Amino acid sequence: MQDDYRENFDAIERAWQERWRCTRAAAAPRIPGRRKFYCLEMLPYPSGRLHMGHVRNYSIGDAVARFYAMRGYDVLHPMGWDSFGMPAENAAIKHGTHPARWTNENIAAMASQLRRLGFAYDWEREIAAHRPAYYRWTQWFFLKMLERDLAYRSRRLVNWCSSCQTVLANEQVEGGRCWRCESEVGRRELDQWSLRITAYAEELLADLASLPGWPDKVLAMQRNWIGKSEGAMVRFPIVEAGGAPGGEALEVFTTRLDTIYGCTFCVVAPGHPILARVEAGGRHRARLDEFLGRMGNREVARPGAAPEEKEGVDTGIEVVNPYSGARVPVHVANFVVMGYGTGAVMAVPAHDQRDFEYATRYRLPIRTVVLDERGIPAASPPSAMVEDGRLTESGPYTGKGSEEARREMLRAGEKAGMARPLVQYRLLDWGISRQRYWGTPIPVVYCNACGVVPVPESDLPVLLPEDVALTGEGGSPLARLASFVETRCPRCAGPARRETDTMDTFVDSSWYFYRYCDPSNEKAPFDPEVVAAWFPIDLYIGGIEHATLHLIYSRFFAKVLRDLGLLRLDEPVRTLLCQGMVLKGGSAMSKSRGNTVDPDEMVRRFGADTTRLFTLFAAPPEKDLEWNEQGVEGCFRFLEKTWRLLAPRFTTLARAPFPAPGDGGDDPRRAALRRKIHQTIDKVTVDLEKRLHLNTPVSALMEMLNAMQDFVSEFREGDDPYLKEAARTLALLLQPLAPHMSEELWSRLGGEGSAGRQPWPEARPEWLREDEVEIVVQVNGRLRGHLRAAVSLTEDEAIRRAREDARVEAHLAGRTIRKTIYLPGRLLNIVAQ
RNA sequence: GCCGGGGUGGCGAAACUGGUAGACGCAAGGGACUUAAAAUCCCUUGACCCUCUGGGUCAUGUGGGUUCGACUCCCACCCCCGGCACCA
Fold first, then answer.
1. What DSSP letter does each residue of A292-325 carry, written as one string?
2. I need a surface site. Which of A119, A362, A427, A705 has the fewest CB within 10 A?
3. What is the CA radius of gyration of chain A?
């Protein structure tokens, strides 16, 4: 049965996918002068199977890409693979396969799933991070950064995930846990490579203002993450054994220099170098050691740890407040972290909540130095007075406002050499060394004679060796491979050792979208001219989880590439769309929860069009989407109804002529149908182009189909051309949302070529305009009646007509009309009292 | 605590620059077709009330305000979700 969609959808979809595969154009270059649209979805990690989150992400992107193609844009819509990373290595350890094999098989499987969903990607531009032709350039960028001192090696305290056996960047620690495996993250001191993202901190922050197309949420998260604070670095000279201040000082960072006269002690983090001064065997030493011992491993900063009760001990060290001259004790306590500022703070209990709590607990003096605007000391347990105000008991600054005092105190402090202005960021440099195998090798060697030597560009790529033993025992697998490690120094030809750490995979994904523009360039990562023609990315779609990961790294890379002369813009992404999660039973789909829905099964039961349609229809893109199988059936029914209505008429409609543009106006049914067609075109176009709403276009098409059904239910001689016009329009409007149905309808209705290559239909103003409209009649703003009239109806005439309505008149009874508000063609409001 | 986003029927949602609140879909109820079921088609469906082929009142988290008119703008508050967090 040809008119049974249920029997036919699979064959229809497969046939079109086959045709798309054969007819796909060779990687199209930009045509100068034409408008371009770069539509990009975040590239997936090749885990082996698509999940519904992918399907949703790509359905949104594909709809937009197909729409812009029909609107006459040159569209770039590529796909690739973020194919380095730990899961491949873990799978290899577990199953005894090689990560490369596992990865390549997964890519093949997922690519075929993507094809079965009918996504229109330009596969000739496909890239994969693990292919040498790609990671060669990842290494090249690293060398360029090394040249510019944007990559450096240092011994630093790093986040260590013992389960993943590797270092994590700060961005990869979430609430003290590993972003991938959720195990608790420890700290280790290691030599590792970092990228100097902090060199761009100010610009990364400032340029957020130039991204109106980004969600406020992401802008806020990045602003937060960069965490700029302006303040002062102040030197507190250390009192030496003899009792006089010596040359050495404790440096503290403060944003509240105005409160410094209220500093009654200082606090350093456990692990602060000043603690070495506490004499062995002294009474302070014993208590200090007891305290540090109790802190256990946590003698160093733990980003993301939950606040706990303030606890600390007096170190016996004293420092001098350079402003007031007061001698204050130095404590070590658990609420100061080593990873921010200098790991030391001046404590002003009257005006800082943490200091207040600590001082209260240990009965340390609390000195009020800022009064509120009424001149009242406002610190009262359990809270410190943390607002700005007017200074008191602050020597020459008494009586000044906080703001002014900060300025003047800083100026004076600078002159005296005891303070200097400092802008502090929360953002830290990006540690990229990973002690794992399946990643881009870091292209440097260590020579006994020459030290750290970059691998010459001409020797790139440093190939990742294949014959490696993956045991999962820890330590970098490459380090155990002599044939890789042992090499010659490129500078002196003497014996040297290769770096055996690999790069964080976020390095790979920080520049991939440029490579799509010029995917097979062997001389450079890309031709700047070609990239300039396609950039910026017009729409970038992905999950919010990358707000302070990929999306901040990519912005950093863009700025570096710009400074290398490869890029002509400051920001790579114009509009960012963060799609919501796909939920089932109220929570995110996950294997561990057992609430996943398999895309393949959906495609088998309902087809790609239905699966895609549902992910677009069920919720606006940025909201979470609750998977609802009955909703899926609803979308299937829509396609089924479309098919049932048109399939029996394919031959007739294919042969029928189109109505002339002005025809049908004299027949209310035909006029209504044509009006609906053009209103639908208008609605779908505006929603796709201006609002990026994808649920309402689906509704609009459902409404249009309902109108077509009504039209057919009273079908008359000579109606064919009108139905044909509606059906052909429906076929085209469906292209972004349900492309297979779109193509099938188009060809069965006698359309030439592919529906996807047709120009997008245009709403004709003469059919959008309704000659006779319904005008709402209100009395005192409340709906009391309607009248059908021409748009040109005058206000007086409208009032006269409205008052013919008994209902309106009843509400006016006994009242005087004060005024009327008339919106021609819309509404009449009679205000009466 | 700070920052961001939200609170609309039984549910997912819609309402463009303030102008008919609830489009579209799901679910539910009733009916037609059928021996029956499925499928399909038609009707009803925010709540309450009345003198019930009609009409009224209330209703978009709560309380105020602006306006002829407020889901939409302003003020205050409550709740939910997300992010950050001893950041000095």
1. HHHHGGGGS--TTPPP----EEEEEEEEE-TTT-
2. A362
3. 34
Within 7 Å of a protein beta carbon, the nucleotides of strand B are 3-5, 11-16, 19-21, 23-27, 40-42, 54-57, 68-70, 82-88
Q: Is the CB of A776 under 7 A from strand B?
A: yes
Which has the closest alpha carbon to A688: A644, A619, A736? A736
CA A692 from chain center: how many Å?
16
- Give me the amino acid identity at A176: G
> Which nucleotide in the DNA or RNA is closest to residue A303, CA to C1'?
B85
Residue at minimum CA to C1' distance from nucleotide B6: A623
Give the separation between CA A634 and CA A617, rounded to whole angstroms: 10
Residue-level pLDDT at A301: 42
Q: How far apart are CA A397 and CA A406, in angstroms?
A: 9
Cβ of A177 near strand B (distance < 7 A): no
Strand runs labelled E in A734-815: 772-779, 782-790
Structure tokens at A778: 């209100």
The protein residue nearest B12 (Cα–C1') is A618
- A452 beta carbon to strand B: under 7 Å: no
A339 CB-to-strand B distance under 7 Å: yes
| Interface predicted TM-score (ipTM) of this complex, two decimals | 0.94
What is the pLDDT confidence band of residue A799, given thresholds at 50, 70 and 90? confident
Structure tokens at A191: 């030599």
Q: Is the pTM of this model over 0.95?
A: no
Q: Nearest CA to A393 among A346, A363, A348?
A: A348
pLDDT of A135-192, one tens digit each? 999 999 999 999 999 999 998 878 888 888 888 888 888 777 788 787 878 878 889 9
The structure tokens listed for A682 are: 């208008």
The answer to whether residue A299 scores a pLDDT higher than 50 is no
With 0-12 / 13-18 / 19 or more C-beta atoms within 10 angstroms meaning exposed / middle / buried, residue A818 is exposed
Q: Which long-range contacts (CB under 8 A, 24 or more apart) does A745-750 make?
A: A745/A642, A745/A646, A748/A646, A748/A647, A748/A650, A748/A654, A749/A646, A749/A650, A749/A653, A749/A654, A749/A724, A750/A653, A750/A654, A750/A655
